[in-house]
């Protein structure tokens, strides 16, 4: 039976790869993101079973807009994939305050980008979540290894206890909540204008497999965690990084 799968950050990269994998099963996909043109192109490529909602999930109004879309369709949600996020320090440069004000801004923006986008989406869709549903949150290897400034790593690590609490709350309804923590994944927009060859080599050299991860790798993992067969897997943080978390 076809399910309804909501994917934030679904227009590109990992989110799009997951949407593609789920759509192949005949599931109805609802893509969420801030850029309507990107979502429209992705939905067209995925086929008639895919729709989209342009919404900024850093704000509660964005999640309310998504929930209204679900309610208007008189639908339930079977899978929530809260993939939207990023590191504000790697996005398009803009003037930022110096000193403490700059540090505060970096932390606040990364928490909004990575924690609140997930919390707003999940909490907004809880009333529409079907029994035996699935919730997937997205962390990072940075939650284990750090991220330089601390803010990005901390924002990703915050999702770990959130998933555990969601699992405890929703398990009586057969709903699971898990976290995927990828390492370096090539062919995404995470590094903004692009990763330097030196940084790419460094990331790959940390792995045991000696090759980068791909969006398809994460999509395969997400597809399994969202499947009925994974009903006994919940409150877990599952890493996919080629061994990079432990270094060389």
TrEMBL record:
Tagged with keyword Transcription: no
Keywords of this entry: NADP, Oxidoreductase
Domain Ketoreductase: 3-188
First-tier enzyme category under EC: oxidoreductase
CDD domains assigned: SDR_c
A Pfam family per the record: adh_short
Keyword Oxidoreductase found: yes
Cross-referenced SMART domains: PKS_KR
GO molecular function annotation: oxidoreductase activity
Enzyme Commission number, as recorded: 1.-.-.-
UniProt-listed SUPFAM superfamilies: NAD(P)-binding Rossmann-fold domains
Gene3D superfamilies documented for this protein: NAD(P)-binding Rossmann-like Domain
PANTHER family named in the record: 7-ALPHA-HYDROXYSTEROID DEHYDROGENASE, 7ALPHA-HYDROXYSTEROID DEHYDROGENASE
Family, as annotated: Belongs to the short-chain dehydrogenases/reductases (SDR) family.
Record's protein name: SDR family oxidoreductase
Annotated organism of origin: Glycomyces tritici
